[in-house]
Amino acid sequence: MKRRFFIEKTALAAMSSVIGAELVFGSNLPKGYIPLALENPDPFKLFSLDSRMSVLNNKPWNIEAKAHLLDDKVTPNKFMFIRNNGIIPQKIDAATWTLTIDGESAEQKKTYTLNELKTKFKNYTYQLTLECGGNGRSEFDPPAKGNQWTVGAVSCAKWTGVRLRDILEDVGVKSDAVYIGYHAADLHLSRNPKKEPISRGAPMAKALQDETLIAFQMNGEDIPLAHGYPLRLVAGGWPASVSGKWINRISIRNKEHDGAKMTGMAYRVPCHPVAPGQKIAAEDMCIIESMPVKSLITYPRSGAVLKKGQKLVIRGHTWAGELEVAKMEYSINFGATWKNCTLDKPVNRLAWQHFSATINFPKEGYYEVWARATDSQEKAQPMLLPGWNPKGYLNNACHRIAVKIKA
Ligand SMILES: Nc1nc2c(c(=O)[nH]1)N[C@H]1C(S)=C(S)[C@@H](COP(=O)(O)O)O[C@H]1N2
Ligand SMILES: [Mo]
C-alpha cells in the first residue's frame, strides 16, 4: 500500500496566509500539487500594489504603473513597477543573509552580515530614479520582443543603505579593477540553480559614486520582497537592471563583467544609429550607461475634460540619467511652439525633478499637451520615437496627454 502523503501543518498555514483564506480540505492535497490560487495569485495582494497597476507578465512578474499613478514626489511602494527576470527568492532569512565581496581585483575575499553592513559603515538616504532600460518599448516599430512597457517602468523612491564605495575600500580594490558585477538569490526561470537570471554590473567610476548604495531600506522601511529584500544595489540614473535585487555577492572584476545579461544583445543599443529593422553585429552593440533625458506628465491623466475658459495646471517629473534637467517645456500645438514650465531642482543628484505649468486653451476642441525636457548638455527629448534598436530600449519620446475643452 502506498503511504499517504500528509502536507505539514506549517506549509498549509503558509499557503493559507498567502491565499488569504483557510485551505479547508488542505490535508487532501496530492503531493506536489499547487493550489490554483497560488499558481496564479492576485499580484496586487501579493505585492501590496494598487489594483490600477498593469500586469504585463506573470511568469516572471512584470508590472508597471500608469502615468497618473506616478504623481507622488516620492514613489510609494504601491505604485512602484516590478521587473523580474527570474523567480523571486522564496526563502529569505535576513538574520543569516550575507554579502560577499570577491573577484580578481579584490585584495581579499570578505563576507559581511547584514548587521555588520548596517553598523560598520555610515548610512545614507537618497531619492534615486530607477527606470527600466525597456521603458517605452511598446511603441517601437518593427516591434521588439520583451515586456511591452508603456511609460510606467520608472520610480523614484527613497533608498537607505551604505555606500558601495565604503565597502569596496574596506575590502581593498586592486589597481587593475575596471568593473563590479552583482550576484543575487533569485532563481532562473528554468529552475536550474546553476543558471543566474541576471548578473549585471557597472564600471568602477559608477560603483564608487556617492549615491551608489547597498540599500536595506526603501521609503523608510525594509525593502519590499519584490524590490530586493533584504539587500539591493541601487545605482540611480542608469538602466535599473544595474540595480541588482536580493544581492549576496559583488565581484570586483579586472574586465567588463560577463554575467548573465551583460553580454550578447541584452541591455545594449547600436553604437551608431541604424535603420529600423536592420540586422546589427554583436560587436556594433554598446552597453547602455546613463539613461537619456525624459519626462512624464502625471497630472491630469490623459483624457481630461475642461470647461471653456478653465485653466489647466499640469505637473509631472523629469530626469536625465547622470545629468540634471535644465529646461522643461510644454506644447499644445503638436510641437509647433513651446512654452516654459516651472522646474524644480532635484532633492539630491540622480533624483527626478518636478515641473508644473498653467495652461490656457484658446477655444473649445481637442488638444494634446506634449512635454519636453532638455538636459544640462542641451540634449532634448525627441518629439516622437528616438532611434530604433533591436531590443527596444531607451524610448525617451515626449509624453503626451489628450485634453478636451467643452463649451
Ligand atoms: N536579482 C535581480 N535584480 C534585478 C532584476 C532581476 O530580475 N533580478 N531585474 C532588474 C531590472 S531589469 C530592473 S528594471 C529592476 C527593477 O526593479 P524593481 O522591480 O524594484 O522596480 O531591477 C533589476 N534588478
Ligand atoms: Mo529592466
Architecture overview:
Helix content is 9%, strand content 31%. The protein is mainly beta and 407 residues long. A five-stranded mixed β-sheet has the order 5-4-13-8-9. It is globular, with a radius of gyration of 23 Å. The protein starts with 8 loop residues before the first helix and ends with a strand. 41% of the residues are buried. The mean pLDDT is 95.
Blueprint of the fold:
Layout: H1 9-19, H2 36-39, H3 43-46, E1 54-58, E2 61-64, E3 82-83, E4 98-102, E5 110-113, H4 114-120, E6 123-131, E7 154-163, H5 164-171, E8 179-184, E9 201-203, H6 204-207, E10 213-218, E11 221-222, E12 232-234, E13 247-253, E14 268-270, E15 285-287, E16 294-299, E17 304-307, E18 312-319, E19 325-331, E20 339-340, E21 342-343, E22 353-359, E23 365-375, E24 399-406
The protein binds ligand MTE and molybdenum atom.
Number of helices: 6
Q: Indicate the mean pLDDT.
A: 95
- Percentage beta strand: 25-35%
Provide the gyration radius in Å: 23 Å
Task: Enumerate the distinct ligands.
Answer: the ligand Nc1nc2c(c(=O)[nH]1)N[C@H]1C(S)=C(S)[C@@H](COP(=O)(O)O)O[C@H]1N2, molybdenum atom
Shape assignment: globular
The structural class is mainly beta
What pattern of helices and strands is seen along the backbone? HHHEEEEEHEEHEEHEEEEEEEEEEEEEEE
Provide the helix percentage.
under 10%
How are the strands of the largest sheet arranged?
5-4-13-8-9
Give the biggest beta sheet.
Answer: 5 strands, mixed
Question: Distance between the terminal alpha carbons, to the nearest Å?
Answer: 81 Å
Low-confidence stretches: none
Can you count the beta strands?
A: 24
